[in-house]
Write a structure and sequence with these properties.
The protein is an alpha+beta fold and about 140 residues long. It contains 2 helices and 11 strands, in the order βββαββββββββα. A hairpin with a 3-residue loop joins strand 7 (about 70) and strand 8.
Length: about 140
């Protein structure tokens, strides 16, 4: 059996590689996801994300009932360009501020799979930097 769990998060993919955005309600998960979609990303899921650990990868997908929908505060639910399941390579924690100008490479383990961790609270260039991180990775 493949381990699966549903979490409160948003998820956007670039070229099949996804960023998972976590944080408390009202911290900007959907707003960041909208900004990433505006920069060429595809919505995996908004509000709830189904995570599955399979063959050494962490995969994200949308629950069927909310597939293709994203909340835009003050506007309502919008239809967004979507992709199906995507490999999660990074988690952004919107509750943690980054204290370092050039932070260490952090990791977090989800469902037994290790992915990059970015502290994103109040990060002014986050929506611009994440597509580069997801597509191209970090400099060692």
């Amino acid at each position: 059996m493949t381990p699966t769990e549903t979490i409160h998060a948003s998820c956007v993919a670039f070229d099949g590689r996804a960023v998972l955005v976590t944080g408390a309600s009202g911290n900007g998960k959907s707003a960041l996801a909208l900004a990433l979609i505006a920069r060429g990303g595809l919505l995996v899921a908004d509000d709830r994300v189904v995570l599955t650990a399979r063959e050494g990868q962490l995969r994200a997908a949308s629950p069927v009932a909310i597939s293709g929908l994203i909340e835009a505060r003050g506007i309502g639910l919008l239809r967004a360009p979507v992709t199906g399941s995507a490999r999660v390579v990074c988690l952004v924690d919107l509750e943690q501020p980054e204290p370092e100008r050039l932070p260490p490479h952090r990791k977090i383990t989800l469902s037994g799979i290790e992915v990059d961790l970015v502290f994103g609270k109040d990060a002014p260039n986050l929506a611009d930097a994440l597509p580069l991180l997801i597509r191209n990775g970090r400099h060692a």
